[in-house]
């Protein structure tokens, strides 16, 4: 799908298989999400702009590369996005974090906002929204609506599992926002869960069910 990158690396795919397994424990599930987030972070930041600086090694002064521009912002969609954010921050420890609380209404599947706290200058930064599940796409679309409303113009979306209908909806609503995912599943069930999926990511991350 145009604008959607499925990161097919064998290490990611192996870990996704473990995530899908209903016998995987809460602690392993959380560790796996964090590890996959690190690997996805490597891919989503591949094209970051760089600049050349001078650095003094023990032997000589040399030109060397550093990432240019303001520190980027990671935006976990609460709750389930938190473990993904932890993995992204393992690789980008200086990134800023904006928290966005959304839950799906179980009847309508609409995203309901309950919390938003972002850096004041978020509009000037590259923003990476993270949520393990892109199901109907309502949460991702609401999150990006919210961030664009705060003035953000440079956005990327990272998830573990994208359902094809959700990815299509997000691309249609926000064609300027590229998506990175570890896997794409074809369908949703009547309750809006991704099939085969991995179940409820928030519950499996935090052991709430
Ligand atoms: O694409 P959608 O149909 O909007 O579904 C995806 C959303 O559903 C899950 O969150 P949930 O509402 O279960 O909240 P939680 O993270 O607090 O468990 C998931 O983490 C996404 O945020
Ligand atoms: O399959 C799904 C869909 C939405 N949210 C989840 O946690 N899992
Ligand atoms: Mg959620």
TrEMBL record:
The coiled-coil regions, if any, are none
Q: Which GO terms describe its molecular function?
A: uracil phosphoribosyltransferase activity
What are the alphabetically sorted keywords of the record?
Allosteric enzyme, Glycosyltransferase, GTP-binding, Magnesium, Nucleotide-binding, Transferase
Q: List its EC numbers.
A: 2.4.2.9
Residues holding 5-phospho-alpha-D-ribose 1-diphosphate: 79, 104, 131-139, 200
Q: What class of enzyme is it?
A: transferase
Q: How is its activity regulated?
A: Allosterically activated by GTP.
Superkingdom: Bacteria
Q: Please give the pathway this protein is involved in.
A: Pyrimidine metabolism; UMP biosynthesis via salvage pathway; UMP from uracil: step 1/1
Cofactor stoichiometry and binding remark: Binds 1 Mg(2+) ion per subunit. The magnesium is bound as Mg-PRPP.
- Where in the numbering of this chain does the Phosphoribosyltransferase domain appear? 7-208
Q: State the reactions this protein catalyses.
A: UMP + diphosphate = 5-phospho-alpha-D-ribose 1-diphosphate + uracil
Q: Which Pfam families match?
A: UPRTase
Q: Which residues bind uracil?
A: 194, 199-201
What cofactor(s) does the depicted protein rely on?
Mg(2+)
Q: What HAMAP family does the entry give?
A: Upp_B
Family affiliation: Belongs to the UPRTase family.
Entry-linked PANTHER family = ADENINE PHOSPHORIBOSYLTRANSFERASE, URACIL PHOSPHORIBOSYLTRANSFERASE, CHLOROPLASTIC
Q: What does this protein do?
A: Catalyzes the conversion of uracil and 5-phospho-alpha-D-ribose 1-diphosphate (PRPP) to UMP and diphosphate.
Q: What is this protein called?
A: Uracil phosphoribosyltransferase
